[in-house]
Design goal:
single chain; mainly beta; Ribosomal protein L2, domain 3; 2 domains; seven-stranded antiparallel sheet; four-stranded antiparallel sheet; 17 strands; Large ribosomal subunit protein uL2
């Protein structure tokens, strides 16, 4: 995939770039059964109070229902189109199975229209888009859309350009290096898709202007240090001041950076071999 840069006709144009969507070719309108309208909350709860800040506005989004389980096993499917999804950074592939059913999956990098892919519990050809149990995939292979619990559907490495690396498979468990740098064990009979997620240049896109962020549904965030003391722990002082505290705080006085949010007694902690780097 590539990044598109425009002539600097305005200050916003000078600094922003967009994903080149010319590689996407939707052959027809998406099936209505695979579309769902996303309801907007504005960051408010049922009482109308803001519970999550900096959310509001944004363009209307029609989401695609993505098949994370790939439970139509041993049935070849042809990629009929590569499409954009407003709810995620990765592109989607529309699969057409031999029985005529259509389903969306997260498109792997390098997928082309006409490619035939399959999902199976048995060993499959190691090519992008094929899905099988991790114990059937050789070490060193890039995988994505990985199950944590067998049968639950893909939960890890689903964003644009992401992939995990299988480092070893032993004793019914596989050891993966995740995109965050974390090394963890996963059940060997969990399913994973071979290859890297599409739209690998997504990380290089520059937003460029505030209005584009508003179209994404993200409202402005004001720094605490420019507020008054009544509004934020960082506020107050004459002129430009540093935070002036031992550690940064949230508006409610809690630690803002470097806080471990993972519960100490979480049952899945035993699967983590090495925590991600700070």
């Amino acid at each position: 995939m590539a990044i598109k840069i425009y002539k600097p006709t305005t200050a916003g144009r000078r600094k922003h770039s967009v994903t080149d969507y010319s590689v996407l070719t939707a052959e027809s309108r998406a099936p209505r059964s695979l579309l769902v309208s996303k309801k907007r909350s504005g960051g408010r709860n049922n009482a109308g109070k803001i519970t999550v800040r900096h959310i509001g506005g944004g363009f209307k989004k029609i989401m695609r229902v993505v098949d994370s389980k790939r439970d139509k096993l041993d049935i070849p499917a042809r990629i009929s189109s590569l499409e954009y999804d407003p709810g995620r950074s990765a592109f989607l592939s529309l699969l057409v199975y031999k029985d005529g059913e259509k389903r969306y999956i997260i498109s792997p990098a390098g997928a082309k229209i006409g490619d035939v892919i399959t999902a199976s519990l048995k060993p499959v050809e190691i090519k992008p888009g094929n899905r099988t149990q991790i114990l059937n995939i050789p070490a060193g292979t890039f995988v994505h859309d990985i199950e944590l619990t067998p049968g639950r559907g893909g939960q890890m490495a689903k964003g644009a350009g992401n992939y995990a690396v299988i480092t070893a498979v032993e004793g019914g468990m596989a050891i993966l290096k995740l995109p965050s740098g974390e090394i963890r064990k996963v059940f060997g009979n969990s399913m994973a898709t071979v290859g890297q997620v599409s739209n690998t240049d997504h990380m290089n896109v520059r937003i460029g202007k505030a209005g584009r962020k508003r179209l994404m549904g993200i409202r402005p965030a004001v720094r605490g240090k420019v507020m008054n003391p009544v509004d934020h722990p960082h506020g107050g002082g004459e002129g430009r001041n540093p935070i002036g505290m031992k550690y940064p705080k949230t508006p409610w006085g809690k630690h803002a950076l470097g806080v471990h949010t993972r519960k100490k007694n979480r049952s899945s902690s035993k699967f983590i071999v090495q925590r991600r780097k700070k």
